[in-house]
Specification:
By secondary structure, this protein is of the alpha+beta class. It contains 10 helices and 13 strands.
């Protein structure tokens, strides 16, 4: 996992509630958001669930890339790319340039400032994130199945489990939200910092003639809870991430690749899905039925068989009539590792909105990003959910992609360099 520098940046930090911002705390408070070192937390949240806009994560390391085990930040900009050059050397150069630029931006530096000798290749920083600090930025780079082909002489290096996902029930995938040769996931606690990172990397891909953008999503709200963070809510109003992977042993068992060549170890497989939500219809459903569909209480997040959010669901419990307390088609019952041969995946999803659709309804949903050491584990879970989940009345999977995420680059190297050895 990437090293974290979570120390406060100095005595000038202060607490600023989101409520005070929403109620109009004044121009002075708003302008302070751009100041490096600012920390703010929301009323009613744990004291350690705060945003430190000076936080930095390490790009280089000897484990997995940052942005996987990293505590989820507030915002994401996710983009996939098609490779536009068939030259192996161009792919190698792109990965090197991207790695160099990412390393600088994750330290809050404009690209080209740290390695001026490469500035002619990387280009001039676009400047919209100057003085905003690192804001906890992480950029995670994935390689799609198309990278590992005879086109680049990399067919023999293809990770054993990397392949296109099999068709699954309950999906209506659209080409404009699916696939890609490369993926970039930029997460940060400032949306402009995340956007700046992807904008610069996309520009590098275009100006070098190596890659063009395929599809992109902007997400917010970190719909997944990390260590010491309160569990946030998805756009259906339910807590999302209560039983997520958190502990090192679980990452080692379910997320990190621990077999195969050394250059694959501490890598992972990224599966991303664009899930559209039928929000207006959901809002007309009584909360009691919403609770049944999820298998949890909306307000507390507790399973229907418990009182507190982190109580273990009792899937054997029955009511006075002998019926299961947690519906057999509820989301938590179908997704639970107890009912899926112990399968767990790391969920790192974000809410999204795209305005109004052609029917005049809210166009919104979930950018569902997951990490696992075998994509078949995702397929097993989603096939079961797609076939029987009561939630399917209100959601639709419309986009999909899969990528191999190499381990972090060592100092003086770049992501994917062992592929070209």
């Amino acid at each position: 996992m990437a090293d974290e520098n979570a120390d406060n940046a100095g005595t000038g930090q202060f607490q600023l509630s989101r409520r005070s911002l929403l109620l109009g705390a004044g121009a002075g408070s708003l302008s302070a958001l751009a100041a490096p070192g600012l920390v703010y937390s929301a009323p009613g949240m744990p004291a350690d669930d705060s945003v430190d806009l000076s936080r930095q994560y390490a790009f280089y390391g000897d484990a997995g890339q940052a942005g996987i085990a990293t505590p989820p930040q507030r915002y994401v900009v996710y983009m996939t790319f098609d490779l536009t050059s068939s030259k192996r050397r161009d792919l190698q150069t792109l990965l090197a340039l991207w790695s160099s630029a990412i390393a600088q931006m994750m330290q809050g530096e404009p690209i080209g400032a740290v390695e001026p000798e490469r500035a002619h290749a990387i280009g001039r920083d676009t400047g919209e994130a100057l003085n905003l600090g690192a804001a906890g930025l992480t950029v995670t780079l994935g390689l799609g199945p198309g990278v590992f082909s005879d086109r680049y002489g990399l067919a023999a290096k293809k990770p054993a489990l990397l392949r296109q996902l099999q068709p699954m029930p309950g999906e209506n995938l659209q080409a404009e939200f699916s696939g890609g040769d490369l993926s970039l996931q930029a997460c940060a606690d400032d949306p402009q910092v995340a956007y700046h990172a992807i904008r610069n990397l996309a520009r590098i891909g275009k100006t070098t003639g190596s890659a063009s953008t395929r599809w992109a999503m902007l997400g917010f709200g970190r719909a997944s809870a990390g260590k010491n963070q309160a569990t946030p809510r998805n756009l259906f109003g339910f807590k999302d991430g209560t039983r997520n992977i958190r502990h090192t042993a679980e990452f080692d068992r379910h997320v990190w690749i621990n077999e195969g060549p050394d250059w694959q170890r501490n890598g992972s497989y990224q599966v991303v899905r664009k899930i559209r939500m039928d929000i207006e219809n959901w809002d007309t459903d009584p909360v009691s039925d919403q609770n049944r569909i999820f298998g949890r209480h909306k307000l507390s997040g507790a399973p229907l068989t418990g009182e507190h959010e982190f109580d273990t669901p009792d899937f054997r419990a029955t009511n006075a009539l002998g019926d299961p307390v947690i519906d057999p088609q509820s989301h938590i019952r179908l997704a639970a590792h107890e009912n899926n041969n112990g399968i767990k995946i790391l969920r790192r999803p974000y809410n999204y909105t795209e305005g109004i659709n052609q029917f005049g309804l809210l166009d919104a949903g979930l950018l569902f990003i997951t990490y696992q050491n075998n994509p078949a584990n995702f397929e097993a879970l989603q096939s079961r959910l797609g076939a029987s989940d009561a939630l399917n009345e209100y959601i639709m999977h419309v986009g999909s992609a899969v990528f191999f995420v190499p381990p972090a680059a060592g100092k003086g190297s770049y992501i994917g360099q062992p592929l070209f050895a």
